[in-house]
Fold this sequence. Notes:
Blueprint: E1 2-3, E2 17-22, E3 29-31, H1 34-43, H2 49-58, E4 60-61, E5 70-76
Antiparallel strand pairs: 1-5, 2-3, 2-5, 4-5
Amino acid sequence: MARCGPREYTDAVTFPWLDLLAEGDIHPRRFDSTKTLDSYLRRIERLDDEARAALLRDFHVGPPLARRAYRILPVRPPEPGETP
């Protein structure tokens, strides 16, 4: 699956998956919606409202808003004929 930048992200139909990359983690965590991603960030990563809002808005956040850096990479399915 191809990755794209935050400006190309439009909706969950175009990009059904969101990869979360956290500083120090080797592999991304994949989410099927911003709702499930937000829930994970709140419950597991314990990010406060301001840090979660910044991450979901800008697709990246780091200190001082969060204790480590996070990035979101929207993942789109390959186009017909495109090699994944």
